[in-house]
Amino acid sequence: MKKKLVSVLLTAAMGATLLAGCSGQQAQETVDTAKDAAESASQAVEEVKDAVDENVDYGSGEIKVWVADAVVDFTNEQIAKFQEAHPEFSGYTFNVEATGEGDAAGNMITDVTAGADVYVFAQDQIARLVTAGALEIVEDSNAEVVKAENDAGAVAAATVGNTLYAYPLTSDNGYFLYYDKSVVTDPSSLEQIVADCEAAGKNFYFEVNSGWYQTAFFFGTGAELTYETDDAGNFTTCNATYASDAGVVALREILELTQSKSFQNGSSVSNATNCAAIVDGTWDSEAAKEMFGDNYACAKLPSFEGSDGKTYQLSGFGGFKLLGVKPQEDDNKLAVCDALAAYLSSEEVQLARFEAVGWGPSNLNAQQSDAVKADEALSALADQLQYTIPQGQYPGDYWSLATSLGDSVISGEIKADATDDDLMAALSDFQATCESYAK
Questions:
Q1: Same-domain status, 98 and 15
Q2: Which of 321, 322, 340 is nearest to 63 (CA)?
Q3: 329 and 202 within one domain
Q4: Does 181 lie in the same domain as 165?
Q5: 41, 60, 100, 396: which one has the fewest Cβ atoms less than 10 Å from its Cβ?
């Protein structure tokens, strides 16, 4: 039995339920796409059903699975369900080991052969893993369902070039807007948020001297700043367009924001005072609920009108957890690993994982479930992640440099009335330094 037979069988299980609760043309198109993928998978299953019923020998062996310590027990429970549903894989034992997604890639690259067969990793490590030969390409039938059923940001995070190398597991790391709905009348407009905060004598927090939050402006206008690495993790190329018209529009918007009497530099609810709006992440949702009380509300980041008269949606970094499968010499074992990855990243298991440990799903249908939608912070983040780019690897010096750029704005070193030429000069210096980190 070849790899595709088993992976198609699992994609049918993944695609069996359709998206619900969405509205609008785009949501309907997503529903239709997922439905088509599910129907195609079901047809393929029918074509191979007889072969499955023949009790094909998939062989035997051990499959090592790496997940974060917080989900070891959960993963063992899910694998037990997987085994029960697939007695044809009874020759395999599954050993789940605690290895955090921040450490998994480094361990895999150090020794791919000794590494896990199926493992969770942070999206910023995918390029290194591909280069090291530690990721199997997602089989075509599974890839179709993955792309149809998961949000665009998560799919992009799992993709290198035009090839899908991993199964999205979560969409739950990024930033968005918490606000007081008794003060902020239109959370979709940066100008209106600032005006409402000023009128109410309240503060608006945005950490513009952070290399993480600062990208919301630059990426929003279309400026780029990414790095490429070799298999040893050395930075080889810096792709940067901050020194551009788009960069000038972004930097001028940051300047304009910092001139508001409502502006406060920060991103931590626990450190915020007299606050009506703050750009922060899901980790501060409980603190934000306590601070805003009955007026607690969340939304994606707002848009703004740039100095060129165009409207831009604030962007930034998105963070995702991905599930990878290591290449195998044995096609049968690869089929079992692929099937397990499809199952562990399916809508059903993503929802169960959310309910067990609070990880935000990347599956579109799971995001529309009552349980997830009841979590306002996760819903807002899901909306925002459609406008972000997956965070890749960045040199440590980049983060310090970005802080210096933001500090120059806040301190007035870069003046509010600076000309476009002045801003271009500052951004040219910034970009040249960023590029030097990859030489």
A1: yes
A2: 340
A3: no
A4: no
A5: 396
Q: Report residue 322: phi and psi, to 5°.
A: -125, 155
The CA distance from 360 to 378, in Å, is: 6
Q: What is the pLDDT of residue 36?
A: 55
Structure-model confidence comparison of residues 303 and 229, the more confident one? 303
State the CB neighbour count (10 A cutoff) for residue 38.
Answer: 22
Phi then psi for 306, rounded to 5 degrees?
A: -75, 170
Round to whole Å and give the CA distance between 230 and 133: 12
Name the DSSP class of 166: S
Question: Across the chain, what does the average pLDDT equal?
Answer: 89
Q: Is 82 exposed, middle or buried (0-12, 13-18, 19+ CB in 10 A)?
A: buried
For residue 9 the two structure tokens come to 């069988």
Query: For the chain, what is the domain count?
Result: 2
Q: CB neighbours (10 Å) of residue 370? A: 8
Number of H helices, E strands in the chain: 18, 18
Comparing 18-32, 369-383, 425-439, the range with the smallest average pLDDT is: 18-32
Sheet holding 167-168, edge to edge: 92-98, 61-67, 118-122, 321-325, 167-168
* Rounded-to-integer distance, Cα 57 and Cα 6, Å: 12
